[in-house]
Design a protein that fits this description.
Elements lengths: L2 H10 L4 H9 L7 H7 L4 H7 L3 H14 L8 H14 L4 H7 L5 H15 L2
Helix pairs in contact: 1-2, 1-8, 2-3, 2-5, 2-8, 5-6, 5-8
Length: about 120
């Protein structure tokens, strides 16, 4: 499965950024697409206020499903992802991403996040 293509397809069909990214990988964690859709429903567009990019939030949710534990001992996985995303795009904030990357809109960020997950989860 190609997470990036699936996530972009889901976004084109009406899912927000967070939903699209989380839904692209959710089933391997026993989470149905419907559950992922509902869980991520209010996290798009930087939680609707331009804060942390919804695609980034969806990826963090998936990373939490894979690596989260009772003491957050593997939280470095989230930090690695955030560093990689910031290195690629300069920010994790929705409003800054859209201002800096006029030609690279949401589908670009969605595809990057979903592809990162696919590579991470191999």
């Amino acid at each position: 499965m190609e997470y990036g293509k699936e996530a972009v397809r889901l976004h084109c069909e009406g899912c927000n950024c967070c939903q699209a990214v989380l839904m692209s990988s959710c089933e391997q964690f026993g989470l149905t697409k419907e559950q992922a859709y509902r869980l991520a429903a209010f996290f798009g567009a930087g939680m609707r206020s331009g804060e942390v990019c919804g695609a980034v939030t969806g990826a963090l949710m998936a990373l939490g499903l894979r690596y989260g534990d009772e003491n957050n001992r593997q939280c470095g996985k989230s930090q690695e992802f955030m560093r990689a995303f910031k290195q690629e795009y300069g920010s994790c904030l929705c409003r800054e991403l859209l201002a800096k990357n006029q030609k690279k809109m949401c589908p670009t960020f969605i595809e990057y996040c979903a592809n990162y997950l696919e590579e991470e989860f191999k």
